[in-house]
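yo

u said u wanted the structure for the complex thing, so here. seqs first:
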Amino acid sequence: DARVTQTPRHKVTEMGQEVTMRCQPILGHNTVFWYRQTMMQGLELLAYFRNRAPLDDSGMPKDRFSAEMPDATLATLKIQPSEPRDSAVYFCASGSSGGIGRQFFGPGTRLTVL
Amino acid sequence: DAKTTQPPSMDCAEGRAANLPCNHSTISGNEYVYWYRQIHSQGPQYIIHGLKNNETNEMASLIITEDRKSSTLILPHATLRDTAVYYCIVRVVNAGGTSYGKLTFGQGTILTVHP
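structre next:
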């Protein structure tokens, strides 16, 4: 089965450090989404891309977060500098804009900022 | 996208049907109903979607009322592995049949299947 992969699966870092999370979407999917999940806020959309171009990043704190797609097989989410309130599980999802709107989620990166 | 309302939690006995309701009274004509679920420590998983007709796939059935203001997800024979948070989401699909944009997740329904 084709799957979305995310690395690392777990990350523990200290406040102020840079964090980079990576996502490999399913081959052929042209839409990539980044979500964040916390107990308090639930699942929130941070940003999404279509054909590698950012379409909506309104859910992302602009001063410290950045999302990019260097190529069709890699999406990155960076936090610099990280803060304890960034501790969450970050999910990447991919889909096909020509399809039914179904999104395939990766296993997530669990980030802990001390 | 229209807002949805779901009960916070439900229980179901293993082997019985689980019927999860969702209210979406402000749904528009071009909005579909999607269901996803999230098993503990995993990413959300697509289950099924529909516009106005009832739908069935290998995982579940979706019953949408005639006025489209509510729907029910049915897991016909629930197993312990169906214990998860179930999300009902309403989103726009454009006239060309393509879907753009985000899924807005609410709090969902925690379904617990017990032996």
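Chain B is about 0% helix and 45% strand. Strands of chain B lie at 9-13, 18-23, 31-38, 45-50, 55-56, 61-64, 70-75, 84-92, 109-114.
cya
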